[in-house]
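Lab notebook, design round three. We kept the backbone fixed and only want residue identities now. Task for the bench partner: fill in a sequence for the structure below.
Input structure tokens:
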């Protein structure tokens, strides 16, 4: 199967690109949107990810990650004490999944990402899911869009 490309959003005060660089890799848990979950279930080891800081000023692409482990049940959904607990999720037939990603690179200055306005202003990126479905936390990205974003961000 051909490599796929994705965009994953994280708020920088929750888990930033600097956190991912420091840790090397992390699990991407807590997704509670069915389309985002389905996207994660489609991810394969080696797929590349645009790392996007949401709820930032400005929001934008701050780095690149890579899928390290394919989707597996999000065990936090079964932990009553965890903030991602879901009483309706069944360990024998899980509803929610997570993937592991690893750090690849980051923009030179994360305070100056490739911003959402920069992406919106580029005609080559007009059809990106980020523009059309902005709120989705895990999105697919076309290979050409991924390459264009990498170039614009200097990655």
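Proposed sequence:
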């Amino acid at each position: 199967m051909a490599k796929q490309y994705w965009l994953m959003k994280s708020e920088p005060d929750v888990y930033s690109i600097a956190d991912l660089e420091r840790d090397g890799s992390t699990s991407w848990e807590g997704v509670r949107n069915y389309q985002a979950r389905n996207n994660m279930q489609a991810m394969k080891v080696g797929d590349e990810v645009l790392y996007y800081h949401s709820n930032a000023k400005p929001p934008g692409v701050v780095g690149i990650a890579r899928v390290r482990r394919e989707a597996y049940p999000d065990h936090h959904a079964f932990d009553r004490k965890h903030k991602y607990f879901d009483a309706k999720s069944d360990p024998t037939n899980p509803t929610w999944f997570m993937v592991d990603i690893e750090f690849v690179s980051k923009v030179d200055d994360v305070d100056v990402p490739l911003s959402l306005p920069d992406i919106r202003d580029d005609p080559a990126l007009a059809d990106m899911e980020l523009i059309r479905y902005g709120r989705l936390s895990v999105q697919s990205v076309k290979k050409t869009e991924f390459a264009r974003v990498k170039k614009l961000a200097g990655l």
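Keep this in mind before ordering anything: Residues 143-153 form the longest helix (11 residues).
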